[in-house]
């Protein structure tokens, strides 16, 4: 089955700096890669996603890139703000009759 | 529109006891999913309901776990008897269509088995 690796487990950045979170996946059949943000006391919330026919997608300060050859995808957050502090999960999905496979999550801390 | 709600938010029980977790999906969402995150690990799929039917229960760890969704509305997940390794956060998600991009997660129930 699919295996998603997410490293490191924690990341600390200064407010205003950029943060990059990387994930790798194992199943070349995976075609959908969502990113979730989990704030304290809340459930994971989908913040951006990318499909395998696209290499990059942006939404304001966040962007996701996908390298199918290397089987890795990354979340980029620019101009980080304290409210970006949260746990971020990457996931992979191979399509109908499959299920989301998540990474272990990374705790991002943005220092004011 | 109310989101996915879960009850309780936190449960502490002793090994061997029984616990029932409840999930109320967003109204009108036929698809309901249960996930679990053991501390520091990935979020893992447990099962998927379409209305009251179990579409996929391949992620259920063992027969100590029983999920129900009578009437196709709210769902319960019972753990009986609970073991130490069952500790973790149990998330519920719902969606109108069976599309992962449309899953809305609840806040989770943190289960601690001592």
| Helix/strand order of chain A, N-terminal first | EEEEEEEEEEE
The helix/strand series of chain B, from N terminus to C terminus, equals: EEEEEEEEEEE
User: In angstroms, what is the radius of gyration of chain B?
Assistant: 13 Å
Structural class of chain B: mainly beta
Greatest chain-chain contact: A-B, 25 and 22 residues
Which percent range describes the beta-strand content of chain B?
over 45%
Number of helices of chain B: 0
Low-confidence stretches of chain B: none
Describe the structure.
The complex is a heterodimer of chains A (112) and B (114). Chain A is 0% helix and 54% strand. Chain A contains no helices and 11 strands. Chain A has strands spanning 4-7, 10-14, 19-25, 32-38, 45-51, 56-59, 62-67, 72-77, 86-92, 101-102, 106-111. By secondary structure, chain B is mainly β. Chain B is 0% helix and 49% strand. In chain B, the strands form 2 sheets. In chain B, strands 2, 4, 5, 6, 9, 10 and 11 form a 7-stranded mixed beta sheet that branches. Chain B has a 4-stranded antiparallel beta sheet with strand order 1-3-8-7, with no helix packed on it. The model of chain B has no long low-confidence stretch (mean pLDDT 95).
How does the SSE layout of this entry go?
The complex is a heterodimer of chains A (112) and B (114).
Chain A: E1 4-7, E2 10-14, E3 19-25, E4 32-38, E5 45-51, E6 56-59, E7 62-67, E8 72-77, E9 86-92, E10 101-102, E11 106-111
Parallel strand pairs in A: 2-11
Antiparallel strand pairs in A: 1-3, 3-8, 4-5, 4-9, 6-7, 7-8, 9-10, 9-11
Chain B: E1 5-7, E2 10-13, E3 19-24, E4 31-37, E5 43-50, E6 53-56, E7 65-68, E8 75-79, E9 88-95, E10 104-105, E11 109-113
């Amino acid at each position: 089955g699919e295996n998603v690796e997410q490293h490191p487990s924690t990341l600390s950045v200064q407010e205003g700096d950029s943060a990059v979170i990387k994930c790798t996946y194992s199943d070349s059949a995976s075609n959908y890669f969502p990113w979730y943000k989990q704030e304290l006391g809340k459930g994971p919330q989908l913040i951006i996603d990318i499909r395998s026919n696209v290499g990059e997608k942006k939404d304001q300060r966040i962007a996701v890139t996908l390298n199918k050859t290397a089987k890795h995808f990354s979340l980029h957050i620019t101009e980080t703000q304290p409210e970006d502090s949260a746990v971020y999960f990457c996931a992979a999905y191979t399509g109908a009759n499959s299920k989301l496979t998540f990474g272990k999550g990374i705790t991002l801390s943005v220092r004011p | 529109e109310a989101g996915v709600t879960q009850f309780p938010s936190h449960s502490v029980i002793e090994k061997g006891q029984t616990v029932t977790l409840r999930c109320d999906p967003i109204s009108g969402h036929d698809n309901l999913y249960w996930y679990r995150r053991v501390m520091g690990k990935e979020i893992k799929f447990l099962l998927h309901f379409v209305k009251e039917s179990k579409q996929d229960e391949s992620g259920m760890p063992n027969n100590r776990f029983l999920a129900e969704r009578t009437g196709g509305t709210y769902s319960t997940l019972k753990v009986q008897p609970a073991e130490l390794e069952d500790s973790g956060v149990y998330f519920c998600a719902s969606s109108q269509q069976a599309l992962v991009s449309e899953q809305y997660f609840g806040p989770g129930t943190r289960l601690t088995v001592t």
